Amino acid sequence: MAIQRHKGLADNVYGAIFNKLMSLEISPGARITVDALVRELEVSQTPIREALGRLEGEGLVVKTHLVGYSASPQITRRRFDEIYELRLLVEPDRARHAAAHVGKDQMRKLKDTAEQMRKLDSIREKSSYFRFARLDGDFHDKIMEIAGNELIRNTLRHLHTHFHIFRLMFHARVTGEALVEHESLLAALSTHDEVGAERAMRDHIERSRQRLLPAFA
Ligand SMILES: [Zn+2]
């Protein structure tokens, strides 16, 4: 697949490699050779090295001295449990704060993200699934931003949770059900229903965990 040459080159190269990693076309743990990507994407080494550096920052690629780049291994069951334990401790409480503080502009942006996810859900192809993963990450990040504790927000953001959990399995149920749960969350946030927002967030995270558990069966 040749990449279109225009000003969005760097982003396109990044997107192409991101999709390969998320779809497991590049298997977890597999070596990634820059030369092979140069041939396949028909671009120079520079945008590929840039993209790999960016993906390394997002935890999807590992760079090892003398060996080079490889795809990060799939998260372990233990790490999965730890991620969800952390999310359940933090995110419902933050959603409660967000419900108390959310402004009209913030609410509009949040609804906008939810709307983009709904549009993607109707496409139902693999690449839209990965955009969905990114938007889900944005959606949760926006709520953390509204809740107002930058330290908590950054801590969660640096885990790149949504990339790792969405890489576990490709399943249409994951998106459809998440949309319904986001709706409950949005309804509670827009009416400043603090208890409702906390409950909706806890419910969403618990269900998300249940949906992804079969990946370890
Ligand atoms: Zn979500």
Structural class: mainly alpha
The total of helices stands at 10
Strand content: under 5%
| Main β-sheet, spatial strand arrangement | 1-3-2
* E-strand count: 3
Radius of gyration: 18 Å
Mind explaining what this structure looks like?
With 217 residues, the chain is mainly alpha-helical. The chain has helices at residues 9-22, 34-41, 45-57, 77-101, 104-121, 126-147, 150-157, 161-166, 172-190, 194-212, and strands spanning 31-32, 61-64, 68-71. Strands 1-3-2 form a three-stranded antiparallel sheet. Helix 4 (77-101) packs across helix 6 (126-147), helix 5 runs antiparallel to helix 6 (126-147) and helix 9 runs antiparallel to helix 10 (194-212). The radius of gyration is 18 Å and the shape is elongated. The chain starts with 8 loop residues before the first helix and ends in a 5-residue tail after the last helix. The model has no long low-confidence stretch (mean pLDDT 91). Bound molecules: zinc ion. The site of zinc ion has 6 residues, from helix 6 and helix 9.
Topology:
Blueprint: H1 9-22, E1 31-32, H2 34-41, H3 45-57, E2 61-64, E3 68-71, H4 77-101, H5 104-121, H6 126-147, H7 150-157, H8 161-166, H9 172-190, H10 194-212
Antiparallel strand pairs: 1-3, 2-3
The structure holds zinc ion (ZN).
